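Subject: Predicted fold for BTB domain-containing protein, 450 residues

User T.R. writes:
Posting the sequence so we have a shared reference for the thread.
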Amino acid sequence: MDQDQYLNSEPESHEDMPISPLNSPDSVPTTSGAGVMSRKRARTSTTSDEIEEMLGCGEESSSQQCIVKPETGFPKRDDSYYFEDGSFVLQVENTLFNVHRTILSKDSSLFSSMFQLPQGGNDVDGRSDDHPLLLPGDRVEEFKDFLWALYALPHELMSIHAPKADLTRLVDIARVSFKYHFKSLETWALDAINEHVNRKDSSIFAFSSASPTTSAPGVATPISRAAFHANGAQLSQLVRLAQLCEHERLLATMVALLKRMMTQGIQYAHLAMTLADELDLRVLRGVAYLEVMQKAVVVVRNGRGQAGVDKDAEEDDVVDSEGRLIVSPEQRLRLLTGYYRLTQAWEKLRTSPIPFDHAPSCGATWHQHGCTQSWLDFWKEKTKGDTVLQLSLSDLLGRLRAIAKEFDRWGSATYMHHDCRMTARRVIQEKIRNVEESLPDFFIEEGMQG
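User M.O. replies:
I've generated the structure tokens; pasting them so everyone works from the same file.
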């Protein structure tokens, strides 16, 4: 995030001031925060509380059966999944489904556990249209997609592998299966989603391979608001679904996709940054914040929910009319923290070359002092070279990679033992990997909520 980028706008108030080295705090704590792990959903065996939740029951219920007020008008029977020989009536919104207990009992589901509970001679919901089991929180279309998976024939199920597979249906199946503990069906749907997203002929994310537009070399410009909103919601939905269901392969696929799409438009970096904060996605936080820090001028959204310097900004906009990224105060603090800590890390590294142990052959046949001095001279020269200085002061990774390339060109140094040159090359690469792994920690401090 170079200073020139931040001097392009004139904020009207301190609150809307873009992040810049010129207005960063005098000091920012440098204590590294504890590693942030992704939030995990603990799936345990079915309990009576879970069954009550499925039935819409709460602790304040005054009767054995919960009373959920249906929608206005009489519920109607579904055209596809109200079977005359069905044995259990469900109501979703204002629609009735009459399905089979044996089907609902598959996969050790929550329904199976409910059916096994002793009834004590009391009438139970689900026995008729007048007494259906109400399923609050579900939508008719997504529940129909779920029932489709339970009742579909093999050749119908194979349609999910087609290039134009119905991704919305698969998402609905996965979500409802997760809710009611159909674990095998949930995994099947998530695997199918992962396969669909990874298809080379998949059209849903084909735009991600397009060449990004730039306003300056290496600086991505915002894409259109319509293009972003057409795809941002789908991306968010799939990331949240993968995280909710702990499906590591789909989550890894979506994270990799978001990383690629950051180069297509800065809004996607903002989306990745927001999802990383919301879901505690460590694997996404570092690269997302670094992308925003280096490629965007930002403005803080004020307490009224709008960017104070841009009256035309809408509530869900992430870029204002001047092309600046709209961030929250917490995100601005993390960006400032990251900038400070990355620059401090580079300054420390610049003055203290990466240490390494000399090879045994160096001590036996070489002058270690000359070998060490050769390494120090290289480090001093290259850390001040043009290829390094042209990069942002906070681009710790970029500068280290530039030094690695310079070392490969310098590999025939006269006064450094060959085995020590190999060791030095290895420690540079190890340092790059260490920075990549710890990158999220540069943008979050101990005591800051993720």
